[in-house]
Design goal:
Elements: E1 6-10, H1 15-20, H2 22-31, E2 36-42, E3 57-61, H3 69-84, E4 88-91, H4 96-104, E5 109-113, E6 124-126, H5 129-133, H6 140-150, H7 167-179, E7 188-191, H8 203-217, E8 221-224, H9 230-239, E9 245-247, H10 252-261, E10 264-268, H11 271-278, E11 283-286, H12 292-295, E12 303-305, H13 326-329, H14 333-345
Parallel strand pairs: 1-2, 1-4, 2-3, 4-5, 5-6, 7-8, 7-10, 8-9, 10-11, 11-12
């Protein structure tokens, strides 16, 4: 690695995964400031990397379009990678698409983990992370840092992972807050969505929580979601007794700024929750089916609200143990309200 001038890192899929890759990128940059680290991600998550000082260039796997969309976007990305003639590629994802992109690079050092699909594609396979770290129950950040530990490269004691925000988005959110009569650090932000039903607290509970927080602290409450999740905010609004703000039309850069400017963030196990952690916000997390040891907010103070059930953790695509996902549905409003009150009282 000492003689490689440019490294391509492939990190596909979710917002949370993208944010949790930042500690590795920062550790690599700290080790060798002259190493040019390019990052290939999917277009919706580009804002995680485009302004980060550890990332030299952000390459995008574009969204699917048209009947031949998947094949076309892969081909376009493969050609772009091949043209750059990388000496080394590190795949952090391990699926079929990322394996194809790794192979297309033509790099003489193609690095993945032994657990990945299509292992024949890689020249170097990192052993299982628990073997490398010599302990189990690794966080996702540590799993990705296994690459550096395996090569015996220096890792900072507490690699943080920081989001760097877009000045234009900061200005737009400033204008929008002012237009809504809101002030920075004088509103509470709730993001009630998550990718799986086993990780989503109910809408009526979020509505009651917002009402009671507003009554207790006399602060406005903003609800946020992605545009495709706007129905969740509509459902919350139907249950709420007080008037709150419901914003489902923000881009990722604007969402990051909205999180940065809030007094306290409340959310499920989701990408925006990891963004709040990376921005160092006061944070309450309502936890469902996923493995808390692997996915909890990284290197920040937070208040978790979770149950211990014998069926946890689970893949989360459906609940195999009950008619409903009791791990998240059995969490009451009082418990979350108590966690919020504790966080607010200790600021």
């Amino acid at each position: 690695m000492e003689n490689i001038p440019r490294l391509l890192v492939i990190r596909l899929r979710s917002l949370g995964d993208s944010i949790l890759a930042l500690p590795l990128l920062e550790a690599l940059h700290s080790w060798r400031h002259d190493l040019k680290i390019d990052l290939l991600t999917e277009a919706p998550y580009a804002g995680v990397y485009t302004r980060h000082p550890a990332v030299h260039e952000t390459l995008l796997l574009r969204p699917r379009t048209g009947p031949a969309g998947e094949g076309w976007r892969r081909a376009r990305a493969c050609l772009e990678i091949r043209r750059r003639r990388y000496a080394a590629v590190l795949n952090l994802h391990g699926g079929t698409t990322s394996a194809l992109l790794t192979l297309a690079s033509g790099a003489r050092f193609r690095i993945g983990q032994q657990k990945y699909r299509h292992a024949w594609i890689y020249h170097h396979l990192i052993p299982p992370p628990p073997t490398v770290w010599q302990r189990s129950a690794l966080h996702t950040v540590e799993d990705q840092l296994t690459f550096m530990r395996w090569l015996q490269l220096p890792i900072p004691a507490k690699p943080r992972g920081t989001l760097h925000l877009d000045p234009g988005a900061r200005a737009r959110i400033g204008e929008r807050l002012a237009a809504a009569g809101l002030q920075p650090s004088r509103y509470l932000l709730i993001h009630p969505t998550a990718t799986l039903p086993t990780k989503r607290w109910e809408e009526w509970k979020f509505a009651e929580l917002a009402d009671r927080l507003h009554e207790r602290w006399h602060l406005p409450v903003v609800f946020s979601s992605a545009p495709c999740e706007a129905q969740v905010l509509l459902d919350v609004g139907r249950y709420a007794q007080h008037a709150h703000h419901y914003w489902s039309d923000l881009g990722l850069d604007e969402l990051f700024v909205l999180i940065e400017q809030c007094r306290m963030f409340v959310g499920n196990d989701s990408g925006p929750t990891h963004a709040a952690a990376a921005l160092g916000k006061s944070l309450v997390v309502i936890w469902g089916s996923s493995d808390y040891r692997v996915w909890h907010p990284w290197e920040t103070e937070y208040a978790p609200v979770r149950l211990e059930m014998p069926c946890m953790p689970c893949p989360g695509y459906s609940c195999a143990a009950f008619d409903i996902p009791k791990c998240i549905r059995d969490i009451g409003v009082e418990r979350v309200l108590a966690a919020c009150t504790s966080v607010m009282s200790h600021e």
